């Protein structure tokens, strides 16, 4: 259950959304409505709990342990079939970024009056990346 | 497109996807992908599948339009 949650691109996109909102609230409080300002601990405490649970989870599931790695957990590489699914999904994400980055640079230049626009852009691109990845993976399940 | 008769052979040999997956060393999802024709397996995996069923590769995998 815990590992599935970590592997879920939707979980990661939710984290990115929360992190973006917290950063905007922390650094641009005068530019956003007060209801958007979220205390960092709203995200920090659940993350600390989740991290704290990992050793107990690994002890109970030694064959399916959560390991610290720079390779994102949502990548499925158990065998050649899963690697193929990952290839298809990451290919779509790559194509998305090939278009999203120049469009993002242009939007940042034109919308420079919105001081926190780059954060919004990163959050949107991050969430879209995970949605594209998740829908692609879901298609082959 | 690569067609295959893995599903029919699996039914004939009374194997589940998981059992076949265990025998050839892949996940159940990979067997599912092969049966649906979404994924063309590697030569190694193709051979392993043919060994499990004891039939030549050509009897399991064929190109669309081939007899």
Automatic annotation (TrEMBL), chain A:
<keyword id="KW-1133">Transmembrane helix</keyword>
<protein>
    <recommendedName>
        <fullName>MFS transporter</fullName>
    </recommendedName>
</protein>
<keyword id="KW-0812">Transmembrane</keyword>
<feature type="transmembrane region" description="Helical">
    <location>
        <begin position="93"/>
        <end position="110"/>
    </location>
</feature>
<feature type="transmembrane region" description="Helical">
    <location>
        <begin position="116"/>
        <end position="135"/>
    </location>
</feature>
<feature type="transmembrane region" description="Helical">
    <location>
        <begin position="34"/>
        <end position="57"/>
    </location>
</feature>
<keyword id="KW-0472">Membrane</keyword>
<feature type="transmembrane region" description="Helical">
    <location>
        <begin position="9"/>
        <end position="28"/>
    </location>
</feature>
UniProtKB/TrEMBL annotation, chain B:
<keyword id="KW-0238">DNA-binding</keyword>
<dbReference type="GO" id="GO:0003677">
    <property type="term" value="F:DNA binding"/>
</dbReference>
<protein>
    <submittedName>
        <fullName>Transcriptional regulator</fullName>
    </submittedName>
</protein>
<feature type="domain" description="HTH cro/C1-type">
    <location>
        <begin position="6"/>
        <end position="60"/>
    </location>
</feature>
<dbReference type="Pfam" id="PF01381">
    <property type="entry name" value="HTH_3"/>
</dbReference>
<dbReference type="InterPro" id="IPR001387">
    <property type="entry name" value="Cro/C1-type_HTH"/>
</dbReference>
<dbReference type="InterPro" id="IPR010982">
    <property type="entry name" value="Lambda_DNA-bd_dom_sf"/>
</dbReference>
């Amino acid at each position: 259950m815990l590992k599935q949650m970590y592997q879920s691109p939707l979980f990661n996109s939710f984290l990115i959304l929360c992190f973006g909102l917290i950063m905007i609230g922390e650094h641009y409080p005068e530019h956003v409505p007060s209801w958007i300002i979220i205390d960092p601990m709203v995200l920090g405490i659940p993350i600390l709990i989740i991290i704290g649970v990992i050793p107990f989870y690994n002890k109970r599931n030694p064959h399916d342990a959560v390991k610290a790695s720079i390779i994102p957990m949502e990548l499925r590489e158990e065998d050649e079939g899963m690697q193929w699914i990952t290839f298809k999904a990451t290919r779509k994400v790559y194509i998305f970024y090939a278009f999203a980055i120049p469009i993002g640079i242009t939007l940042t230049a034109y919308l420079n009056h919105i001081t926190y626009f780059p954060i919004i852009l990163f959050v949107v691109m991050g969430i879209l990346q995970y949605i594209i990845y998740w829908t692609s993976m879901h298609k082959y399940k | 497109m690569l067609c295959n008769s893995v599903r029919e052979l699996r039914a004939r040999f009374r194997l589940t996807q998981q059992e076949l997956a265990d025998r050839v060393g892949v996940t159940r999802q990979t067997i599912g992908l092969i049966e649906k024709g979404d994924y063309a397996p590697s030569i190694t995996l193709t051979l392993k599948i043919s060994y499990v069923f004891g039939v030549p590769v050509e009897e399991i995998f064929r190109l669309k339009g081939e007899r």
